[in-house]
Amino acid sequence: ELKVEQNPLFLSMQEGKNYTIYCNYSTTSDRLYWYRQDPGKSLESLFVLLSNGAVKQEGRLMASLDTKARLSTLHITAAVHDLSATYFCAVDGASGTYKYIFGTGTRLKVLA
Amino acid sequence: DAGVTQSPTHLIKTRGQHVTLRCSPISGHKSVSWYQQVLGQGPQFIFQYYEKEERGRGNFPDRFSARQFPNYSSELNVNALLLGDSALYLCASSWSPTGELFFGEGSRLTVL
Prior knowledge:
The structure holds two protein chains of two kinds. By secondary structure, chain A is mostly beta strands. Helix content of chain A is 0%, strand content 55%. By secondary structure, chain B is mostly beta strands. Chain B is 0% helix and 51% strand. Chains A and B meet through strand 5, strand 9 and strand 10 of A and strand 4, strand 5 and strand 10 of B.
């Protein structure tokens, strides 16, 4: 069964610092998604990574995908307080199952 | 353009009762998926429907059922509610069964 693991689970960082969130998954998949969730809110799509080596950037966030290593990273550059949220990665299930498997989430708190 | 809309946004039920949650997809989207998110965890896949047919089912008991209507809206039904069914229920729509998911704001169910 496909499993998706994120680390760290909790991350407290100072404004202006850089950090990386890691997402590992257990079986082959060519599509990976990153979402942001604010407390009590729904999921906001951040990035869609569709192929090996894909890299996408939006503001202070950059996501990459290595399908051979079954690893995606979400890099935060010069963090600001507004980035405080929970970040989830999700991977398409095996062919034909039509479902996303979500990671455990990384709760990020950026301290002013 | 309207996004995915869900109703009700919040509801409180007691053990043993039944609940119906509703979802309207983004205009033009023909696939609807349902996810359960327990506090502090990532969303878990419950169902996917496409063109009114069930295309995928997660590891949930038969108390959970769903359907999709000709206008592509969907209902999630849960019978004989348990305390453990308390969660945020997220509906997501997509253009196709394997397309990117767009999530609604969710229905927060509390079972007492």
